[in-house]
Amino acid sequence: MSGKTVLILGSYAPSLVHFRGELIAAIAQRGHRVVAAAPQISAEIAEQLRDRGAEPRELSLVNASLNPFAMLQSFRDVRRLIRDVGPDVLIAYTINFPISP
């Protein structure tokens, strides 16, 4: 497939479909690979993402904890996902995402 790889990270799986579904479909329709990742993606949400042209990925994310070890593990999981997918574009939306410069 020609085009870019777009990784969309969210903190709540249903929001990928309900709030980013049209964006995901539009990107995929333009010939780009879309990978959508969030914690606890149900089979129903995964199917809806695939219907829009995205590849669903489960992401272990703890974004409401004060435990520094949990946040570190989330950071490692996100970093591992980014390395695995190799996105050209990253769209991350959440209040507290464990990615910092």
Automatic annotation (TrEMBL):
Residue intervals of the Glycosyltransferase subfamily 4-like N-terminal domain? 21-94
Q: What is this protein called?
A: Glycosyltransferase subfamily 4-like N-terminal domain-containing protein
In its UniProt entry, the species of origin is given as: Sphingomonas daechungensis
